[in-house]
Amino acid sequence: MVSISVLHRTLRALLEDRISIRDIGTVLETLAEYADKIQDADLLTDLVRERLGRTVTRPYIAEDGSLGVVTLAPELEEKLRHGVQRNEGGAVLSVEPEVLQTMVQEFEGLLTRAKQERSGGLPVVLSSQAVRAPLRRLLSRLDPRLVVIAHNELPPDVQVVGHGVVGAVHAHQAI
């Protein structure tokens, strides 16, 4: 059994990320499979997103089958993963303000370059599933069109093309 509240929050989260819910069968099947073990709507949404991987990524795949992405340096990804805190409102990033400020500045620079190089097109941010939702919330303040996809949501036949790494410059410093 899936509560109406969990179903509503999951569907709302998918729609906020501009993911079609036309495949409601897969959504309901995934929720039914995990809802008795997991009550956190963010975690359930991540499981649904994983099952809908092709639907999640399809709008961002180029004609040649590639997906342009910006990734996080492993050190930054790890720091963010350890800083994820869950509450009633969802997962949030709780890390040092300097780390967040530096990361946001790097994203701003990458986005500016990407918009110039790709005629306004934005690369997708690729992250781990653990930091995807809180990172998306943070980055939506920079540009609401920015998309954050988790590694496990990528279909196996998609060719990933890197357009930059955030946090790599500061890998030996605080980040």
Descriptive account of the structure:
- With 175 residues, the protein is of the alpha/beta class.
- The chain has two domains: 48 residues; 104 residues, Rossmann fold (3-Layer(aba) Sandwich).
- Helix content is 46%, strand content 17%.
- The protein has seven helices and six strands.
- The strands form two sheets. It has a four-stranded parallel beta sheet with strand order 5-4-1-6.
- The C terminus is likely disordered.
Q: What are the low-pLDDT stretches, counting only 5+ consecutive residues below 50?
A: 171-175
Tell me the count of domains. 2
Which CATH architecture of the largest domain? 3-Layer(aba) Sandwich
* The level-1 CATH class of the largest domain: Alpha Beta
CATH topology of the largest domain: Rossmann fold
What separation lies between the terminal Cα atoms? 43 Å
What's the average pLDDT?
87
What is the number of E strands? 6
The helix-strand sequence is: HHHHEHEEHEHEE
Strand content: 15-25%
Gyration radius, to the nearest Å?
A: 16 Å
Morphology: globular
Q: What is the CATH superfamily label of the largest domain?
A: FHIPEP family, domain 4
* Class per helix and strand makeup: alpha/beta
